[in-house]
Design goal:
By secondary structure, the chain is mainly α. The chain has one domain (9-128). Helices cover 43% and strands 7% of the residues. A two-stranded antiparallel sheet has the order 1-2. The chain is flat.
Length: 139
Amino acid sequence: MNNFNIDYENYDVIVGYRADDSYFQFAKAFLNNGITYKTLSNAMYLGELGNQYAIKSEKAFSKLTFNTVHKAPASIWFEKKIARENKAREIYTNSKLEKISDNDILLTDIIRGRISDEEKKLLQQGISPVSTRSSRSDD
């Protein structure tokens, strides 16, 4: 895992996927080699949840400004949450039906070092390198 260790300590802000509980099943499936990296990545975007930001430094915090407040009535947003959860379940069910090809990247490929340096760089950038992949080697 040292190949993917990103030194985040010197960053003021970290940006990543924002996922609610309904999308946790994708992460769990990836950790169990049930879905590919590409499927995991696509699922996070398909959720249309956007990004989340972690403000790590006083410098970054000092740049924040308050613009306005928006009410979020439960009568509207609870229905949206339920719709999002249903969509996540549907996407998850469909992703489990996809056949995993030799060109797809599973967690075991990453752990066993079965990916190229180019693929590592793409993964670190959050880009799915599947189109650059020629074939999985079974060392």
